[in-house]
Amino acid sequence: MAEDDDQRLSHTQRLKAAVHFTVGGLCQEISEDKQVNFSKQAIAALSEITFRQCETFAKDLEMFARHGKRSTINMDDVKLLSRRSRSLYTHICAYSDEIAASNLEQKGKRKKKSVSGGKRRSDGDSVAVESEDME
């Protein structure tokens, strides 16, 4: 049990470090672009807020899926999460549409391949290999 807690703590610390590194890089880009400086304390505070918000998002997404009696988080859950920010919601919906169009295109290509050159089983049925689709 203690080993699991140590492993979880180590994983969380690595995630926090990655978020801090990313936030620091973004702040550096902004400071170069906008001629504004960020103190180390400000970067640390932004990193902590970002990490906590991501934890909240993860819990909310899990609850949305559970409410829908599912064990998998889907794009509708993400859209629901982003509903309070109009610009984020618009971005998420556009991205969702891109993914859906890409999936349809890939399905069409797979169907053509399976019809023209699918492998045959001994019973005569063709086999088409399909990857998991995001919905």
From TrEMBL:
SUPFAM superfamilies: Histone-fold. The keyword Cell membrane does not apply. CDD domains: HFD_CENP-S. Keywords: Cell cycle, Cell division, Centromere, Chromosome, DNA damage, DNA repair, DNA-binding, Kinetochore, Mitosis, Nucleus. It is found in: Chromosome, Centromere, Kinetochore; Nucleus. The keyword Signal does not apply. One of its GO terms (cellular component) is FANCM-MHF complex. InterPro entries: CENP-S/Mhf1 (IPR029003), Histone-fold (IPR009072). Residues 105-135 are annotated as: Disordered. GO terms for molecular function: chromatin binding; DNA binding; protein heterodimerization activity. Pfam families: CENP-S. One of its GO terms (biological process) is DNA repair. Belongs to the TAF9 family. CENP-S/MHF1 subfamily. PANTHER family: CENTROMERE PROTEIN S, CORTISTATIN. This is Centromere protein S. It comes from Engystomops pustulosus (Tungara frog).
